[in-house]
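note to self — DONT lose this again. spent like an hour looking for the file last time. sequence + predicted structure for the chain T wanted, 359 res
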Amino acid sequence: MRKQDKYICTGVVVTAGTVGLIDYLQQTEKLKKKGQKITWENYKGLQAFKKMAVFGIVGGVLGNEFYKWESDEESKKEFSSDNYLKKILAEENLNKNPEKFRELKQITKEVKTVLNEEFNNDLVNYPETIGSLGKRTAIVTTYDADIVLPIKKENQFGNLSNLSSTIHDKIENRFDGIAEVKKSRKASSLIFRGREGVHKIDIIYGKETGNYSTDKKLNLYVRPSFFWQKGKSFKTDIRVQKSLLIKKPRVREAIKLLKIYRDRNNLSIENTLIDQLALEALSVYNYGEEFSISENFEICLDYISFKLCNKRITDYANSNNNFLNKIDESDKQAAIDLVSSDLVKIESNPHYIKEMFQK
């Protein structure tokens, strides 16, 4: 909940609650003078409710006015949005909890070894690490490991559906009693409970479409949502996913901030879409120029708001994949409205950026 909403809600709750209590005490006192005790039968609940509703509205207005006054006073103080965002990044740095990060890396290494032993004859190469850890865009509050198993075109599993179910079953059997195994539409997930906390590792498996060693392209199987539906195939380019952000520290920095902003405001925008739009935004607007961390963040927000209004955003790793098909219309509109509103408020008061990242 944003600061303004908290102030309004607090105003409503405090005034309505106070008025309700006073009314109750007044009714109790009146009945006491008549020699009666207050009960559910003689308590005038509708009267109390009306008073609480009226004064609750007044309290909400007062709460909002106090918020505006406080914001106005705060806007007069010296403030650096760049320093504030750097502080946010420091809070979300993986080194904030180095022991947990090291434990996840060790578990991931061991899982890759096990997977290589289990599927060695059918693998094009050793299991690879992909995702936010590989791209160096992970944040400490929500990060896990992603492993891809590139399966040879000629393998023992047969079609994609059978490949998907057989590999999942083998993973389930191999890690039984060691980790909790879950099945998602495109992957198998391992949940480990280590000394430093809970760790999640997603294992993605697909069949090479050509020569994976050179083109890094895989055909994945997407499991159906319901048993009466058919599964689908999904092509992806692992090279694009892994190389997208190489030697782009400013973009990675902006992506981390966008993820934090998304998570703290409960927006439904997936990581791969954030990666791609941030790269596009800073390529289009920052070409040949260097901007500050806060300017880069605002540029990305503005670009995301603009792109979400389109009908299609094509996935770099699969030209047939439209990212917007995965976002519910109401979630998309909520993201557009919030981002647009935040950008307007930042323009009038740079301090407002603190409210955008409020936990």
